[in-house]
């Protein structure tokens, strides 16, 4: 092995080392901030999908929460579902009241790993689409073309249907949590 | 100044050098996405041109490309983390584009063709010029495609409600991107040759 080869390898080694050191430093500085922001965002999102509730004890970590209002009464549940859309799972946070009506939904942003097509499937995040779910029970949670009451997004039926079905199946899956509350 | 203007017009990265076509076609469905991608590219381009110009004398020529790639990917990751930690709102909009920048060949091309041969200050000017050139090109794409494909500009409906309900949907789909970029390139070529 010539000295030249060794020298090149060393330089590359140093370059990679400097890069790794810089990144680990940046990571350790930013990680707490990023985590803190995630917690704050989740609390804000929970409050938005289940308005009235102020405390959210965890039932299943990262998946299911109970919503307690300021008087200490359980008003409903919030859960996350990941229906498969056009580009991958669509992370959806759903709030459901005790009477099984949907209180609100929030859909993760592309920065949080949601991969629907910009301009098409990504429109499931728009207010008009999300607001359609409010006050609806699971029997009505189908797209109009599937016999329900919800408008699909033009040219993005797969994404629209994924969210609608995901919300409905989530309610079916977690509704027992509501029944337990009423007892 | 020459280097700055150069990147915007005579060597516009997208419309003349034909670099970075992949993100230009993919992320120009709406004006907001397009500008977001452009701004993220400017950040990375500035950082990588600066560092590569600084270390250009210490890097043997055989190692240029691997070292440049290390520098670029390091910068992309730094920007990704920093934005996430300190500008979470901005990150919500740009976050999805940041990892895509690693594969944007404009950055590597400028490192190789310019920053590795010029001083720090010229490299910064070059990065700004090329970056702005990229924003203008991808922004023009986003403008046309959103206007015709959704009847809106940055989400605001401008061509009337009936057009918004029934737009030229084709424009926000991939074929529309090819069509628009072809027209932009043709216009640029006409302007340059005249």
Automatic annotation (TrEMBL), chain B:
Its main location: membrane. One of its GO terms (biological process) is electron transport chain. GO terms for cellular component: endomembrane system; plasma membrane. The chain crosses the membrane at residues 36-55, 67-84, 90-109, 121-144, 168-188. Its EC number is 7.-.-.-. It holds the Pfam family Rnf-Nqr. It is a multi-pass membrane protein. Keywords: Cell membrane, Electron transport, Membrane, Translocase, Transmembrane, Transmembrane helix, Transport. It is an enzyme of class 7 (translocase). InterPro entries: NqrDE/RnfAE, RnfE. It is found in: Cell membrane; Endomembrane system. It comes from the Bacteria. The complex is composed of six subunits: RnfA, RnfB, RnfC, RnfD, RnfE and RnfG. Belongs to the NqrDE/RnfAE family. Part of a membrane-bound complex that couples electron transfer with translocation of ions across the membrane. PANTHER family: ELECTRON TRANSPORT COMPLEX PROTEIN RNFE, ION-TRANSLOCATING OXIDOREDUCTASE COMPLEX SUBUNIT E. This is Ion-translocating oxidoreductase complex subunit E. It comes from candidate division TA06 bacterium DG_26. The gene is rnfE.
